[in-house]
């Protein structure tokens, strides 16, 4: 399914952010050798909640454009 498993049938790690209307707002899929960063997930969630245009390196609660 969508290439979400390795050749050894191990599931890749994924992070999904879904809004209150069950619409995907962000999805990240990571290979088995790539670690996930919880701080980046929180930064992405915070940015989505601003409903504003934000810089790619914007910190949590940082300024928007």
Classification by helices and strands:
alpha+beta
> Regions with pLDDT < 50 over 5+ consecutive residues?
none
Order of helices and strands: EEH
Strand content: 15-25%
Percent range of helical residues? 10-25%
* Rough outline: elongated
Biggest β-sheet: count, sense, barrel? 2 strands, antiparallel
**In whole angstroms, how far apart are the ends?**
38 Å
Task: Characterise this structure.
It is a single chain. This protein has a two-stranded antiparallel ribbon with strand order 1-2. The protein contains one helix and two strands. The protein starts with 12 loop residues before the first strand and ends in a 15-residue tail after the last helix. The protein is elongated and about 45 Å long. It is of the alpha+beta class and 65 residues long.
Lay out the secondary structure.
Layout: E1 13-18, E2 24-30, H1 38-50
Antiparallel strand pairs: 1-2
